[in-house]
Design goal:
By secondary structure, this protein is α+β, with helices and mostly antiparallel strands. The chain has 3 domains: about 160 residues, PAS domain (Beta-Lactamase); about 120 residues, no CATH class; about 160 residues, Heat Shock Protein 90 (2-Layer Sandwich). It has 12 helices and 12 strands. The strands form 3 sheets. It has a 5-stranded antiparallel β-sheet, covered by helices on one side. Strand 11 and strand 12 form a beta hairpin. It is rod-shaped and about 180 Å long. Bound molecules: adenosine-5'-diphosphate.
């Protein structure tokens, strides 16, 4: 059953019980009050009749020394006639034998036996589908004690009660019908956020992680929707990260097997040539040399990979090193290269890190800058003391890299121009290693590049104190 239907049905049940109970008590209350009033009137009338009888008995001529039954009958008839047709009474003697009775008065019961001198009694009786208040009292008439009973018709009060229940039942049905329609609308409106959330969870279960539930209220349901959307956002981010990681791993495996396959195919082909045929000296040398250089490339690649794996698991032993030491090292490595013009400028300062690893990062960046530039190009190497650390930058005026590729060049085996990189002994692992080293130093590579104009690779090595705080 739907949640809105549950709200609707439970409300209808509560409304039906409430209306039924309140109607029952109200109609009964009105009935009780009316009946009480009728009983009061009947008892008052009984008192009046008792008094009238006693007065009439006193006026009986004194020639009768006792009150004759015939006189009782005469007074009874007069009293009945005084009631304008609606009065019913019975007068009984000492032995409860009937002395006078109106037409239509009920059969004698043991009602009279309950009467005594002080109290007037009454009872409600039903006779031929009509209801009456029967009263009873004692009359002291001369030397006799008689019983007076009256009957008042109260069928109207009972009919009013039946009518009241009837009207109330109809009212209840009408109110329930209107209330149900109204409640249905309210239930549908109240449960709309739940339906929207349900739709969102279904969409997400189908894999649409970008779907968000519409927030249509500012109450607890609205808060729940916002929390759900926040959770969906976090989930989407996590799924995207997982997908990226899986894609990166697949790319890595694909690139790794490709990088292995090409040199291995050449090595196997040349080795086969060497062992299967007698070659002239020059071809023999060229084949052996090819096997050697490709083997060297594989060796370099496996060392780099090893470096990356080890780097991921290692911790650093950082020390303070003078910034000048890094630039002197670069000058030493590239000082003799006439192909490129190295412009090194730096501010004195201290760098907190593992010097050898940072040197290899700088070497990689300068190496890449050289590979990307035409012979004779300028390569600028800068060092600056900045707040929070020491900043290095390597800028070239070479081929540059487009924005899309900038995001991927730190992935292992990623090469922008594969044939160019391979021809220069590259395997797309240099920047991956740099990124690894820098992340161990709580830093990262900043790349600014414009295709055809050149690139600038920079990074900031944070000072020890700040990093320890972090
Ligand atoms: P490789 O060992 O092949 O040089 P890297 O990881 O160092 O691999 O570099 C990845 C790719 O990024 C290279 O193939 C190269 O195309 C591109 N690249 C790196 N540095 C530069 C640069 N300064 N200018 C243009 N392209 C660059």
């Amino acid at each position: 059953m739907k949640f809105s239907d549950k709200i609707l049905f439970s409300t209808i049940i509560i409304m039906a019980i409430a209306l039924g109970a309140s109607g029952y008590f109200f109609v009964n209350y009105v009935f009780d009050a009316s009946l009480e009033r009728e009983v009061g009137q009947a008892l008052d009338e009984s008192s009046i009749l008792q008094f009238a009888f006693e007065t009439a008995a006193l006026n009986v001529p004194s020639k009768y020394d006792v009150l004759q039954d015939a006189v009782v009958e005469e007074i009874g008839a007069k009293l009945e006639a005084g009631g304008q047709g609606g009065r019913l009474l019975r007068i009984s003697g000492e032995d409860m034998e009937t002395l006078y009775i109106s037409d239509g008065f009920a059969e004698a019961t043991d009602f009279l036996s309950q009467i005594d001198r002080q109290t007037r009694i009454y009872q409600i009786i039903r006779e031929n589908d009509r209801y009456y208040v029967q009263t009873g009292s004692m009359i002291d008439a001369l030397d006799r004690v008689l019983y007076l009973e009256t009957l008042s018709d109260v069928t109207g009060v009972f009919e009013e009660r039946t009518q009241g229940f009837h009207i109330y039942r109809r009212m209840t049905v009408l109110v329930l019908l209107c209330g149900s329609v109204l409640m249905w609308g309210i239930a549908v409106w109240l449960t709309k956020p739940v339906r929207l959330l349900k739709k969102a969870t279904q969409k997400m279960a189908e894999g649409d992680y970008g779907y968000r539930a519409e927030c249509i209220s500012h109450d607890e349901m609205g808060q729940l929707t916002e929390d759900f959307n926040r959770m969906a956002g976090a989930l989407e981010e996590n799924v995207a990260q997982l997908e990226d990681a899986v894609r990166a791993r697949e790319d890595f495996i694909g690139a790794f097997s490709h990088e292995l396959k090409t040199p291995l195919t050449s090595i196997i082909g040349y080795a086969d040539l060497l062992r299967s045929r007698k070659l002239d000296d020059e071809t023999h040398f060229l084949s052996a040399n090819y096997i050697y250089t490709e083997g060297k490339r594989l060796e370099a690649m496996s060392f780099r990979l090893l470096d990356i794996v080890v780097m991921k698991r290692s911790s650093l032993e950082r020390t303070w090193t003078k910034a000048g030491e890094f630039f002197d090292y670069l000058r030493q490595m590239y000082g003799t290269a006439e192909e490129y013009r190295l412009d090194i400028q730096y501010e004195p300062g201290q760098v907190y890190g593992e010097a050898n690893l940072l040197k290899s990062v700088l070497l990689n960046l300068v190496d890449n800058a050289c590979k990307a530039s035409e012979p004779g190009s300028l390569i600028e190497i800068r060092g600056k003391k900045k707040t929070g650390g020491y900043w290095f930058a390597v800028k070239d005026y070479g081929v540059g890299i487009c924005e899309e590729e900038c995001k991927r060049i730190t992935e292992a085996f990623y090469m922008v121009d594969k044939s160019r990189s391979r021809s220069r002994n590259g395997a797309g692992l240099g920047l991956a290693l740099c990124a690894q080293v820098l992340s161990l130093h709580h830093s990262g590579l900043e790349i600014e590049s414009v295709p055809g104009e050149g690139s600038c690779f920079s990074f900031l090595i944070p000072d020890g104190e700040e990093e320890e705080d972090a």
